[in-house]
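ZP: hey, is the adenosine-5'-diphosphate complex queued? I don't see it on the tracker
AM: it wasn't, my bad. submitting now with these inputs:
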Amino acid sequence: MARIVMKFGGTSMAGTERIRRVARIVQRQQAAGHEVAVVVSAMAGETDRLVNFCREANTLYDPAEYDVVVASGEQVTSGLLALTLQALGCKARSWLGWQLPIHTSDAHAKARILEIDSAALIAAMQGGEIAVIPGFQGLSEHNRITTLGRGGSDTSAVAVAAALKADRCDIYTDVDGVYTTDPRIVAKARKLARVTYEEMLELASVGSKVLQTRSVSLAMKEGVRVQVLSSFIDDDAPPADSLPGTMIVSDAELEGQEMERQLITGIAADKNEAKVTLTRVPDQPGAVAAIFGPLAAAQINVDMIIQNIAKDKGETDVTFTVPSSDLARTQALLEAQKDTIGYFRMISDSHVAKISVVGVGMRSHAGVAATMFKALADRRINIQAISTSEIKVSVLIDEDETELAVRVLHTAYGLDGE
Ligand code: ADP
Ligand code: ASP
Ligand code: MG
Protein backbone atom coordinates (compact mmCIF):
# COMPACT_ATOMS: atom_id res chain seq x y z
CA MET A 1 0.00 0.00 0.00
CA ALA A 2 1.22 3.45 -0.84
CA ARG A 3 0.08 6.97 -0.13
CA ILE A 4 -0.59 8.91 -3.33
CA VAL A 5 -1.49 12.56 -3.96
CA MET A 6 -3.31 13.05 -7.27
CA LYS A 7 -3.67 16.51 -8.82
CA PHE A 8 -6.09 17.32 -11.65
CA GLY A 9 -5.72 20.52 -13.71
CA GLY A 10 -8.34 22.85 -15.13
CA THR A 11 -8.95 21.08 -18.44
CA SER A 12 -9.37 17.78 -16.60
CA MET A 13 -11.99 19.34 -14.27
CA ALA A 14 -13.95 21.29 -16.91
CA GLY A 15 -17.51 20.03 -16.58
CA THR A 16 -19.49 17.21 -15.04
CA GLU A 17 -18.49 14.61 -17.59
CA ARG A 18 -14.77 15.20 -17.12
CA ILE A 19 -15.11 15.27 -13.34
CA ARG A 20 -16.79 11.87 -13.59
CA ARG A 21 -13.77 10.54 -15.50
CA VAL A 22 -11.48 12.02 -12.84
CA ALA A 23 -13.56 10.37 -10.11
CA ARG A 24 -13.17 6.99 -11.82
CA ILE A 25 -9.38 7.45 -12.00
CA VAL A 26 -9.32 8.31 -8.29
CA GLN A 27 -11.57 5.39 -7.40
CA ARG A 28 -9.32 3.03 -9.36
CA GLN A 29 -6.22 4.32 -7.55
CA GLN A 30 -7.85 3.73 -4.18
CA ALA A 31 -9.09 0.30 -5.27
CA ALA A 32 -5.46 -0.61 -6.02
CA GLY A 33 -5.01 -0.47 -2.25
CA HIS A 34 -3.65 3.05 -1.76
CA GLU A 35 -4.42 5.92 0.57
CA VAL A 36 -5.47 8.79 -1.66
CA ALA A 37 -5.66 12.58 -1.40
CA VAL A 38 -6.72 14.65 -4.40
CA VAL A 39 -5.88 18.27 -5.23
CA VAL A 40 -7.99 20.01 -7.86
CA SER A 41 -7.84 23.15 -10.01
CA ALA A 42 -10.79 25.32 -10.99
CA MET A 43 -12.48 24.48 -14.28
CA ALA A 44 -10.45 25.69 -17.30
CA GLY A 45 -11.13 29.37 -17.97
CA GLU A 46 -12.80 29.94 -14.62
CA THR A 47 -9.88 31.67 -12.89
CA ASP A 48 -9.47 34.02 -15.89
CA ARG A 49 -13.18 34.84 -15.67
CA LEU A 50 -12.90 35.62 -11.95
CA VAL A 51 -9.77 37.75 -12.46
CA ASN A 52 -11.70 39.79 -15.04
CA PHE A 53 -14.56 40.38 -12.60
CA CYS A 54 -12.03 41.86 -10.14
CA ARG A 55 -10.61 44.14 -12.82
CA GLU A 56 -14.08 45.30 -13.80
CA ALA A 57 -15.03 45.95 -10.19
CA ASN A 58 -11.95 48.01 -9.39
CA THR A 59 -8.89 48.45 -11.59
CA LEU A 60 -6.70 48.99 -8.53
CA TYR A 61 -8.13 45.97 -6.74
CA ASP A 62 -7.18 45.04 -3.20
CA PRO A 63 -5.20 41.77 -3.50
CA ALA A 64 -6.84 40.35 -0.36
CA GLU A 65 -10.31 40.69 -1.88
CA TYR A 66 -8.99 39.45 -5.23
CA ASP A 67 -7.95 36.26 -3.42
CA VAL A 68 -11.45 35.85 -1.95
CA VAL A 69 -12.86 35.98 -5.48
CA VAL A 70 -10.34 33.89 -7.42
CA ALA A 71 -10.02 31.13 -4.80
CA SER A 72 -13.70 30.32 -5.31
CA GLY A 73 -13.15 28.39 -8.55
CA GLU A 74 -11.36 25.60 -6.70
CA GLN A 75 -14.00 25.51 -3.96
CA VAL A 76 -16.57 24.61 -6.62
CA THR A 77 -14.54 21.80 -8.21
CA SER A 78 -13.47 20.26 -4.89
CA GLY A 79 -17.10 20.03 -3.78
CA LEU A 80 -18.17 18.64 -7.16
CA LEU A 81 -15.48 15.97 -7.15
CA ALA A 82 -16.39 14.90 -3.59
CA LEU A 83 -20.05 14.65 -4.68
CA THR A 84 -19.14 12.65 -7.79
CA LEU A 85 -16.95 10.25 -5.78
CA GLN A 86 -19.81 9.75 -3.34
CA ALA A 87 -22.11 8.97 -6.27
CA LEU A 88 -19.66 6.21 -7.24
CA GLY A 89 -19.96 4.79 -3.73
CA CYS A 90 -16.64 6.13 -2.38
CA LYS A 91 -16.19 7.82 0.99
CA ALA A 92 -15.01 11.33 0.17
CA ARG A 93 -15.04 14.86 1.55
CA SER A 94 -13.59 18.23 0.66
CA TRP A 95 -11.06 20.05 2.86
CA LEU A 96 -10.84 23.74 1.99
CA GLY A 97 -7.57 25.61 2.44
CA TRP A 98 -8.82 27.34 5.61
CA GLN A 99 -10.17 24.11 7.09
CA LEU A 100 -6.95 22.09 7.12
CA PRO A 101 -5.50 24.75 7.25
CA ILE A 102 -2.85 25.33 4.61
CA HIS A 103 -0.86 28.11 6.30
CA THR A 104 0.67 30.62 3.87
CA SER A 105 2.48 33.94 3.97
CA ASP A 106 0.19 36.95 3.60
CA ALA A 107 1.57 38.01 0.21
CA HIS A 108 -1.85 37.97 -1.43
CA ALA A 109 -2.05 36.65 -5.01
CA LYS A 110 1.46 35.20 -4.67
CA ALA A 111 1.47 33.62 -1.22
CA ARG A 112 3.97 30.94 -0.22
CA ILE A 113 2.95 27.83 1.66
CA LEU A 114 4.51 27.77 5.13
CA GLU A 115 2.98 24.69 6.71
CA ILE A 116 0.12 22.25 6.26
CA ASP A 117 -1.67 20.62 9.18
CA SER A 118 -1.94 17.10 7.90
CA ALA A 119 -3.29 15.28 10.97
CA ALA A 120 -6.96 15.46 9.91
CA LEU A 121 -6.09 14.38 6.38
CA ILE A 122 -4.11 11.39 7.56
CA ALA A 123 -6.90 10.30 9.93
CA ALA A 124 -9.46 10.61 7.13
CA MET A 125 -7.35 8.68 4.63
CA GLN A 126 -6.60 5.93 7.14
CA GLY A 127 -10.36 5.59 7.60
CA GLY A 128 -10.71 4.93 3.88
CA GLU A 129 -11.98 8.40 3.04
CA ILE A 130 -10.71 10.22 -0.05
CA ALA A 131 -9.62 13.75 0.85
CA VAL A 132 -10.35 16.34 -1.85
CA ILE A 133 -8.38 19.57 -1.47
CA PRO A 134 -8.83 22.72 -3.58
CA GLY A 135 -5.48 23.76 -5.01
CA PHE A 136 -4.18 27.34 -5.30
CA GLN A 137 -5.59 28.50 -1.93
CA GLY A 138 -4.45 28.84 1.66
CA LEU A 139 -4.89 30.87 4.83
CA SER A 140 -2.71 33.80 5.90
CA GLU A 141 -1.49 34.44 9.42
CA HIS A 142 -4.13 37.19 9.52
CA ASN A 143 -6.83 34.57 8.96
CA ARG A 144 -7.58 35.62 5.40
CA ILE A 145 -7.83 33.50 2.25
CA THR A 146 -4.74 33.64 0.04
CA THR A 147 -3.84 32.30 -3.40
CA LEU A 148 -0.48 31.05 -4.62
CA GLY A 149 -0.11 32.69 -8.05
CA ARG A 150 -1.36 31.39 -11.38
CA GLY A 151 -0.83 27.70 -11.95
CA GLY A 152 -0.44 27.32 -8.17
CA SER A 153 -2.41 24.09 -7.78
CA ASP A 154 0.71 22.18 -8.83
CA THR A 155 2.47 23.70 -5.82
CA SER A 156 -0.47 22.87 -3.54
CA ALA A 157 -0.27 19.24 -4.66
CA VAL A 158 3.47 18.95 -4.06
CA ALA A 159 3.13 20.67 -0.66
CA VAL A 160 0.34 18.29 0.37
CA ALA A 161 2.45 15.35 -0.81
CA ALA A 162 5.39 16.60 1.25
CA ALA A 163 3.22 17.14 4.34
CA LEU A 164 1.67 13.66 3.99
CA LYS A 165 5.06 12.09 3.22
CA ALA A 166 3.34 10.62 0.16
CA ASP A 167 5.07 7.99 -1.93
CA ARG A 168 4.22 9.86 -5.13
CA CYS A 169 2.54 13.01 -6.40
CA ASP A 170 0.79 12.38 -9.72
CA ILE A 171 0.04 15.56 -11.70
CA TYR A 172 -2.75 14.69 -14.15
CA THR A 173 -3.12 17.12 -17.05
CA ASP A 174 -4.18 17.32 -20.70
CA VAL A 175 -0.93 15.89 -22.14
CA ASP A 176 0.54 12.50 -21.22
CA GLY A 177 3.87 13.74 -19.91
CA VAL A 178 6.66 16.26 -20.25
CA TYR A 179 7.84 16.57 -23.84
CA THR A 180 11.04 17.86 -25.43
CA THR A 181 9.00 20.97 -26.20
CA ASP A 182 5.32 21.98 -26.07
CA PRO A 183 3.64 19.22 -28.13
CA ARG A 184 0.97 21.71 -29.14
CA ILE A 185 3.62 23.76 -30.97
CA VAL A 186 5.87 21.03 -32.36
CA ALA A 187 4.12 17.88 -33.56
CA LYS A 188 7.45 16.03 -33.58
CA ALA A 189 8.06 16.67 -29.86
CA ARG A 190 9.01 13.50 -27.97
CA LYS A 191 7.74 12.42 -24.58
CA LEU A 192 10.45 12.09 -21.93
CA ALA A 193 10.28 9.07 -19.62
CA ARG A 194 12.29 10.99 -17.03
CA VAL A 195 13.61 14.47 -16.48
CA THR A 196 15.71 15.72 -13.59
CA TYR A 197 14.38 18.23 -11.04
CA GLU A 198 17.03 20.67 -12.11
CA GLU A 199 16.15 20.49 -15.79
CA MET A 200 12.41 20.65 -15.09
CA LEU A 201 12.98 23.65 -12.85
CA GLU A 202 14.88 25.42 -15.61
CA LEU A 203 12.31 24.43 -18.27
CA ALA A 204 9.39 25.62 -16.14
CA SER A 205 11.08 28.91 -15.33
CA VAL A 206 11.71 29.68 -19.01
CA GLY A 207 8.15 28.99 -20.15
CA SER A 208 7.19 25.28 -20.07
CA LYS A 209 4.06 25.88 -18.05
CA VAL A 210 3.23 22.16 -17.75
CA LEU A 211 4.35 22.56 -14.10
CA GLN A 212 4.44 25.74 -12.03
CA THR A 213 8.10 26.58 -11.35
CA ARG A 214 7.61 26.75 -7.62
CA SER A 215 6.10 23.25 -7.51
CA VAL A 216 9.33 21.89 -9.01
CA SER A 217 11.62 23.69 -6.58
CA LEU A 218 9.48 22.48 -3.68
CA ALA A 219 9.52 18.89 -4.97
CA MET A 220 13.30 19.10 -5.33
CA LYS A 221 13.75 20.50 -1.84
CA GLU A 222 11.37 18.02 -0.19
CA GLY A 223 12.35 15.03 -2.34
CA VAL A 224 8.77 14.50 -3.54
CA ARG A 225 8.47 11.97 -6.38
CA VAL A 226 6.43 13.67 -9.11
CA GLN A 227 4.86 12.09 -12.17
CA VAL A 228 3.18 14.10 -14.97
CA LEU A 229 0.50 12.08 -16.80
CA SER A 230 -2.78 12.39 -18.68
CA SER A 231 -6.28 12.36 -17.21
CA PHE A 232 -7.74 11.87 -20.68
CA ILE A 233 -7.54 8.11 -20.52
CA ASP A 234 -9.92 5.16 -20.83
CA ASP A 235 -10.82 2.84 -17.98
CA ASP A 236 -8.47 0.17 -19.35
CA ALA A 237 -5.41 2.47 -19.66
CA PRO A 238 -2.22 1.36 -17.85
CA PRO A 239 -2.42 2.30 -14.15
CA ALA A 240 -0.47 5.26 -12.77
CA ASP A 241 1.57 2.82 -10.66
CA SER A 242 3.16 1.47 -13.86
CA LEU A 243 4.50 5.03 -14.41
CA PRO A 244 3.07 5.73 -17.88
CA GLY A 245 3.86 9.45 -17.69
CA THR A 246 7.06 11.41 -17.09
CA MET A 247 8.89 10.99 -13.78
CA ILE A 248 10.76 13.95 -12.32
CA VAL A 249 13.85 12.39 -10.75
CA SER A 250 17.06 13.33 -9.01
CA ASP A 251 20.35 13.47 -10.87
CA ALA A 252 21.44 10.37 -8.96
CA GLU A 253 18.48 8.38 -10.31
CA LEU A 254 19.55 9.11 -13.88
CA GLU A 255 23.15 8.22 -13.14
CA GLY A 256 24.33 5.19 -15.03
CA GLN A 257 21.53 5.61 -17.56
CA GLU A 258 23.63 7.69 -19.88
CA MET A 259 21.91 6.15 -22.88
CA GLU A 260 18.82 8.08 -21.89
CA ARG A 261 20.77 11.29 -21.70
CA GLN A 262 20.54 13.72 -24.56
CA LEU A 263 22.73 16.77 -24.76
CA ILE A 264 19.60 18.93 -24.79
CA THR A 265 16.56 17.85 -22.78
CA GLY A 266 14.05 20.40 -23.93
CA ILE A 267 13.22 23.72 -25.55
CA ALA A 268 10.83 26.33 -24.18
CA ALA A 269 9.41 29.62 -25.39
CA ASP A 270 8.17 32.55 -23.35
CA LYS A 271 6.23 35.40 -24.93
CA ASN A 272 5.66 37.21 -21.66
CA GLU A 273 8.81 39.31 -21.63
CA ALA A 274 9.39 42.85 -22.80
CA LYS A 275 12.63 44.48 -23.93
CA VAL A 276 13.74 47.90 -22.73
CA THR A 277 16.71 49.85 -24.11
CA LEU A 278 18.17 52.99 -22.55
CA THR A 279 20.39 54.83 -25.03
CA ARG A 280 23.48 56.89 -24.31
CA VAL A 281 23.87 55.99 -20.65
CA PRO A 282 27.09 57.49 -19.17
CA ASP A 283 29.81 54.80 -19.30
CA GLN A 284 30.96 55.20 -15.71
CA PRO A 285 30.87 53.33 -12.39
CA GLY A 286 27.42 53.39 -10.78
CA ALA A 287 25.46 53.95 -13.99
CA VAL A 288 24.11 50.41 -14.20
CA ALA A 289 23.38 50.35 -10.46
CA ALA A 290 21.30 53.52 -10.93
CA ILE A 291 19.15 51.68 -13.48
CA PHE A 292 18.65 48.35 -11.76
CA GLY A 293 18.55 49.51 -8.13
CA PRO A 294 15.08 51.10 -8.40
CA LEU A 295 13.75 48.10 -10.35
CA ALA A 296 14.97 45.68 -7.70
CA ALA A 297 13.45 47.82 -4.96
CA ALA A 298 10.12 47.60 -6.81
CA GLN A 299 10.44 43.77 -6.94
CA ILE A 300 10.70 43.82 -10.74
CA ASN A 301 12.62 40.81 -12.01
CA VAL A 302 15.17 41.75 -14.64
CA ASP A 303 16.17 38.79 -16.77
CA MET A 304 18.50 39.32 -19.74
CA ILE A 305 20.92 42.26 -19.69
CA ILE A 306 23.28 43.53 -22.37
CA GLN A 307 25.46 46.58 -22.28
CA ASN A 308 26.59 47.57 -25.74
CA ILE A 309 30.13 48.63 -26.63
CA ALA A 310 30.86 52.05 -25.22
CA LYS A 311 30.94 54.75 -27.87
CA ASP A 312 33.82 57.25 -28.14
CA LYS A 313 31.95 59.80 -26.06
CA GLY A 314 31.95 57.58 -22.97
CA GLU A 315 28.35 56.53 -23.50
CA THR A 316 26.77 53.11 -23.76
CA ASP A 317 23.37 51.57 -24.59
CA VAL A 318 21.86 49.24 -21.98
CA THR A 319 19.22 46.67 -23.00
CA PHE A 320 17.35 44.33 -20.64
CA THR A 321 14.13 42.37 -20.33
CA VAL A 322 11.38 42.43 -17.69
CA PRO A 323 8.07 40.52 -17.45
CA SER A 324 5.52 42.17 -19.80
CA SER A 325 3.19 42.59 -16.84
CA ASP A 326 5.83 44.84 -15.19
CA LEU A 327 6.64 46.92 -18.29
CA ALA A 328 4.40 49.87 -17.43
CA ARG A 329 5.83 50.10 -13.91
CA THR A 330 9.37 49.78 -15.29
CA GLN A 331 8.79 52.63 -17.72
CA ALA A 332 7.33 54.84 -15.00
CA LEU A 333 10.22 54.16 -12.62
CA LEU A 334 12.92 54.81 -15.23
CA GLU A 335 11.15 57.91 -16.51
CA ALA A 336 11.20 59.27 -12.96
CA GLN A 337 14.94 58.48 -12.71
CA LYS A 338 15.85 59.90 -16.13
CA ASP A 339 18.03 62.72 -14.81
CA THR A 340 19.72 60.61 -12.15
CA ILE A 341 20.61 57.87 -14.63
CA GLY A 342 21.39 60.36 -17.36
CA TYR A 343 20.17 58.35 -20.37
CA PHE A 344 19.00 59.92 -23.63
CA ARG A 345 16.02 57.80 -24.75
CA MET A 346 14.02 54.82 -23.49
CA ILE A 347 12.80 52.38 -26.15
CA SER A 348 10.46 49.49 -25.25
CA ASP A 349 9.31 46.49 -27.24
CA SER A 350 6.95 43.81 -25.97
CA HIS A 351 6.78 42.04 -29.31
CA VAL A 352 9.62 39.70 -28.34
CA ALA A 353 9.96 36.07 -27.27
CA LYS A 354 12.60 34.28 -25.26
CA ILE A 355 13.60 30.87 -26.60
CA SER A 356 15.62 28.63 -24.30
CA VAL A 357 17.37 25.31 -24.69
CA VAL A 358 17.94 23.34 -21.48
CA GLY A 359 20.03 20.29 -20.69
CA VAL A 360 22.47 19.10 -18.02
CA GLY A 361 24.59 17.67 -20.84
CA MET A 362 25.71 21.24 -21.51
CA ARG A 363 27.98 21.08 -18.49
CA SER A 364 30.31 18.69 -20.20
CA HIS A 365 29.87 19.64 -23.85
CA ALA A 366 31.02 22.73 -25.69
CA GLY A 367 29.29 24.15 -28.72
CA VAL A 368 25.66 24.09 -27.58
CA ALA A 369 25.26 27.84 -27.97
CA ALA A 370 27.09 27.85 -31.31
CA THR A 371 24.65 25.25 -32.68
CA MET A 372 21.77 27.44 -31.56
CA PHE A 373 23.13 30.61 -33.14
CA LYS A 374 23.93 28.85 -36.43
CA ALA A 375 20.51 27.17 -36.70
CA LEU A 376 18.75 30.49 -36.12
CA ALA A 377 21.07 32.35 -38.50
CA ASP A 378 20.40 29.79 -41.24
CA ARG A 379 16.71 30.73 -41.01
CA ARG A 380 17.58 34.42 -40.82
CA ILE A 381 16.16 34.75 -37.32
CA ASN A 382 17.79 37.73 -35.63
CA ILE A 383 19.03 37.41 -32.03
CA GLN A 384 18.41 40.53 -29.93
CA ALA A 385 19.86 39.38 -26.61
CA ILE A 386 21.49 36.30 -25.11
CA SER A 387 21.75 34.89 -21.61
CA THR A 388 23.15 31.65 -20.28
CA SER A 389 23.29 29.56 -17.14
CA GLU A 390 25.15 26.34 -16.45
CA ILE A 391 22.44 24.22 -18.09
CA LYS A 392 20.58 26.74 -20.30
CA VAL A 393 21.05 29.10 -23.22
CA SER A 394 18.34 31.70 -23.95
CA VAL A 395 17.95 34.10 -26.85
CA LEU A 396 15.52 36.93 -27.40
CA ILE A 397 13.90 37.12 -30.85
CA ASP A 398 10.94 38.70 -32.64
CA GLU A 399 7.72 37.20 -31.26
CA ASP A 400 6.43 36.39 -34.77
CA GLU A 401 9.31 33.92 -35.20
CA THR A 402 8.64 31.94 -32.00
CA GLU A 403 7.14 28.78 -33.49
CA LEU A 404 9.65 28.70 -36.35
CA ALA A 405 12.59 29.09 -33.96
CA VAL A 406 11.39 26.33 -31.62
CA ARG A 407 10.89 23.93 -34.55
CA VAL A 408 14.26 24.76 -36.11
CA LEU A 409 16.10 24.23 -32.82
CA HIS A 410 14.20 21.04 -32.07
CA THR A 411 15.53 19.63 -35.33
CA ALA A 412 19.02 21.10 -34.91
CA TYR A 413 19.54 19.31 -31.57
CA GLY A 414 18.24 16.02 -32.97
CA LEU A 415 15.16 15.98 -30.75
CA ASP A 416 12.54 15.28 -33.45
CA GLY A 417 10.58 12.07 -32.92
CA GLU A 418 8.56 10.08 -35.43
P1 ADP B 1 -3.33 22.09 -16.16
O1 ADP B 1 -4.58 22.85 -16.41
O2 ADP B 1 -3.56 20.61 -16.12
O3 ADP B 1 -2.55 22.59 -15.00
P2 ADP B 1 -1.53 23.46 -18.01
O4 ADP B 1 -2.22 24.09 -19.16
O5 ADP B 1 -1.10 24.32 -16.89
O6 ADP B 1 -2.45 22.25 -17.49
O7 ADP B 1 -0.24 22.64 -18.52
C1 ADP B 1 -0.37 21.69 -19.56
C2 ADP B 1 0.05 22.30 -20.87
O8 ADP B 1 1.44 22.61 -20.83
C3 ADP B 1 -0.07 21.40 -22.08
O9 ADP B 1 -1.37 21.44 -22.63
C4 ADP B 1 1.00 21.92 -23.03
O10 ADP B 1 0.45 22.71 -24.07
C5 ADP B 1 1.87 22.82 -22.16
N1 ADP B 1 3.31 22.54 -22.27
C6 ADP B 1 4.28 23.49 -22.42
N2 ADP B 1 5.49 22.93 -22.52
C7 ADP B 1 5.30 21.59 -22.40
C8 ADP B 1 6.20 20.47 -22.42
N3 ADP B 1 7.53 20.62 -22.57
N4 ADP B 1 5.68 19.22 -22.28
C9 ADP B 1 4.34 19.05 -22.12
N5 ADP B 1 3.45 20.09 -22.10
C10 ADP B 1 3.91 21.34 -22.24
N1 ASP C 1 -6.90 27.89 -11.09
C1 ASP C 1 -5.61 28.52 -10.91
C2 ASP C 1 -5.13 29.11 -12.22
O1 ASP C 1 -5.81 29.01 -13.22
C3 ASP C 1 -4.60 27.58 -10.32
C4 ASP C 1 -4.29 26.36 -11.15
O2 ASP C 1 -5.09 25.98 -12.01
O3 ASP C 1 -3.22 25.77 -10.95
O4 ASP C 1 -4.10 29.72 -12.25
MG1 MG D 1 -1.13 24.18 -14.79
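AM: back. The pocket of magnesium ion (ligand 3) is lined by residues 9, 151, 154 (CB under 6 Å).
ZP: great, adding it to the tracker
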